[in-house]
Every structure is written in structure tokens, then in C-alpha cells.
Design brief:
With about 170 residues, this protein is α+β, with helices and mostly antiparallel strands. Helices cover about 15% and strands about 30% of the residues. It is built from three helices and nine strands, in the order ββαββββαββαβ. The strands form three sheets. A three-stranded antiparallel beta sheet has the order 1-5-6. The protein has a three-stranded antiparallel beta sheet with strand order 2-4-3. The longest helix is centred in the C-terminal third of the chain and has 11 residues.
């Protein structure tokens, strides 16, 4: 498809000749074939390049949210929510609320488990820092976020979390 315009979000591709790129997947030719497009490695990371050639990472292609058809990085929303003083951690995904209707849902780990933040206060905070289409429409308070053994967020498990008692 070719390079994306400066500032546009797209898949990050690394040329096979880059000395920092891996040589391949050890004994996994099918997986290796999935990530190479000719001489380009495309592993599923999404980013945008600025005018100076720096790339801002916007997450993984399979994590990107698409409310109202817009491409939204959940990490951008999470970073904003985590600046709220009552939020220890945040993670976002889309939840289907009825057939064909998906809304951004924020899973919030409160800094004080006995006093979760007020949802209206979180909505105001999001409105100050995010475009309307990027704002969560649902908030759930949870005790912790699901993570792998090495600490990576398991976004696909967010919808299975029980709400934290308040």
C-alpha cells in the first residue's frame, strides 16, 4: 500500500535489511511467513511518523478501537484516565451493548479501593483531554487488570472481570 503520510496512523513496517531486525522465527516458518510482506516485516504494531522521522507507537493493530468508524488507540485513552488522581490503572476496550452497537468501556482500578472515583468526574476529566469520539461511554471499577506472567495487559480478558464492590 505504500508509506502513510506524515502524522497518519498506520502499520509499522521494518525493511529486512535493518540491522536491528530479527533474522526470523526459530523453527516457525508459518509464523514467519505471516509477518513478512516481501522484504518488509509487519508485526502488527501501529504508529505514526512525525516530520523528523520519529515514530509514536499507538498500540497493536488488533487492539485498535473503532467507535463510530474512527481508529482510536486504547493506550491514548488509558494514559489520560491515569492522570486522574483517583485512578491507579486504566484499560480500555469496546463492549457490545446491543447488536452492532459497540462503545468504549474503561476498566478502572481505583487508587483507593474503598472509594472509587465518581463516574461524572471521570467523564469531565476525559472531556477535558479527549475528543468526543475517544471518550469512554461506560466505566467499570475493578480490583485489578488481567496481566500475563510478564505483566502485559490481557485486553481480551477485560470483559470477564467482576465489578469491584463499592
Amino acid at each position: 500500500a505504500g508509506p502513510a503520510p506524515t502524522g497518519a496512523v498506520g502499520l509499522i513496517a521494518v525493511h529486512r535489511s535493518d540491522p536491528g531486525l530479527m533474522l526470523g522465527y526459530w523453527n516457525r516458518p508459518e509464523e514467519e511467513a505471516d509477518v513478512f510482506r516481501g522484504d518488509w516485516f509487519v508485526g502488527g504494531d501501529v504508529g505514526a511518523m512525525d516530520a523528523d522521522g520519529w515514530i509514536a507507537h499507538h498500540g497493536r493493530a488488533n487492539d485498535i478501537l473503532k467507535p463510530l468508524g474512527y481508529r482510536v488507540s486504547p493506550q491514548e485513552i488509558e494514559a489520560v484516565l491515569e492522570t486522574h488522581p483517583a485512578v491507579a490503572e486504566a484499560a480500555c476496550t469496546e463492549n457490545e451493548v446491543k447488536d452492532g452497537v459497540r462503545l468504549i468501556c474503561a476498566y478502572i482500578v481505583p487508587r483507593d479501593p474503598c472509594a472509587p472515583p465518581d463516574t461524572a468526574d471521570l467523564e469531565r476529566h476525559a472531556a477535558e483531554h479527549l475528543a468526543s469520539y475517544k471518550r469512554p461511554r461506560l466505566y467499570r471499577f475493578v480490583g485489578s487488570l488481567p496481566r500475563t506472567a510478564n505483566g502485559k495487559l490481557q485486553r481480551s480478558r477485560l470483559g470477564t472481570l467482576p465489578d469491584q464492590p463499592t
